[in-house]
Amino acid sequence: MITIYKKEATVYMVAENKLDAKDYENLIPVLTEHITAYQEVSWYIEMQNFEGWTVSAYWKGIELNLPNEKHLKRVALVGSVKWQEQFTEVLLPFSEAHIKFYKTEEKDDAKEWIK
User: Fold this and answer.
1) Model-level pTM?
2) Would you indicate the residue range of the signal peptide (predicted)?
């Protein structure tokens, strides 16, 4: 399940439990709208009790295929498990954005970094 809210040019997302394809169907229009509306967009992703993705959602998550993706400048991933940090490295080749991982106790730093 994901919760999404926006503040100015930043999209904030909290991912909980296991994400499925429907979560990405809700997320992609929000990101697309923001990337179209702003020259520089930041994306904050916080993983709480995150268990991963269903198979169909996993590939949708890696290959978002967003229009004007070059407007996505910074992505902060916040999590507590080593594989979440390693997932950040998997994302790097798929985006021109600067992607950075933060531990849960550093989430205030992550929010400051994406501003």
Assistant:
1) 0.81
2) none
